[in-house]
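Lecture notes, continued. The same structure-token format from the folding unit now serves as the input rather than the output. Read the line below as a description of shape only.
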């Protein structure tokens, strides 16, 4: 049986891990779910430091500064730039290691569903550059590194983009109570909205076969919703029908 790599993409709290596990169960083990391993990022508090740094910078943007304020503004900006690049560098290296494991599974003939591929790093890094969390110089460095490292790496046979309204994402974030994400659910925080603006153009230009699933219309936690997703997968990549028989 041919092996396939299915990548589940989407904004924070879109339901990527949930669908990844559901596809493994629905396939009867013909698909193995592979959840990104970012324990190092969370264990060392990188996410919380990143969110705090960029939120502090956003709070100062557009304000009129006095002489005293200018020094503190530059300190806040430098902290946002430091953590903006640090978090993307760490995630990229972690997902690159994951890709090595995925490559071995695929070579052994095992089909895999993963929650967020390394290709989605491009969205988060572009967003950070757009909002000055990553300098133009560091952004160019990242793009050059990505192009160099990703040559001859396995690519997704299908990307499933879970599209969600920002309001729904914030409700899910509140519901799952992950401390480092709390700030993202604030009414005036635009981080999730900024990412959403980048996801649709990215998926349409990604160069891989893709599906767009409206998570407000299709509840893949139910049997009916999951079957609809499976039908869409098979229609888009016909060879995957063997995985769900």
């Amino acid at each position: 049986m041919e092996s396939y790599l299915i990548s589940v993409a989407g904004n924070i709290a879109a339901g990527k891990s949930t669908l990844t596990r559901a596809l493994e169960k629905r396939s009867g083990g013909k698909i193995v779910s592979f959840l990104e391993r970012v324990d190092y990022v969370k264990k060392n508090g990188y996410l919380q430091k990143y969110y705090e740094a960029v939120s502090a910078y956003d709070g100062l943007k557009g304000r009129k500064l006095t002489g005293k304020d200018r020094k503190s503004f530059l300190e806040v900006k430098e902290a946002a730039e430091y953590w903006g690049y640090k978090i993307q560098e760490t995630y990229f290296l972690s997902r690159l290691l994951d890709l090595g494991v995925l490559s071995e599974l695929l070579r052994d003939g095992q089909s895999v569903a993963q929650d967020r591929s390394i290709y989605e790093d491009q969205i988060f890094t572009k967003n950070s550059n757009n909002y000055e969390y990553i300098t133009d110089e560091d952004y160019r460095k990242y793009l050059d590194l990505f192009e160099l490292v990703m040559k001859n790496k396995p690519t997704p046979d299908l990307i499933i983009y879970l599209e969600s309204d920002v309001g729904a994402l914030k409700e899910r974030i509140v519901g799952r109570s992950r401390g480092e994400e709390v700030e993202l659910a604030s009414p005036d925080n635009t981080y999730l909205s900024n990412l959403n603006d980048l996801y649709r153009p990215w998926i349409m230009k990604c160069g891989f076969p893709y599906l767009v699933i409206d998570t407000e219309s299709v509840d893949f936690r139910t049997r009916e919703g999951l079957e609809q997703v499976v039908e869409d997968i098979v229609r888009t990549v016909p060879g995957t029908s063997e995985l769900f028989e």
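Point for the exam: The chain has one domain: 5-244.
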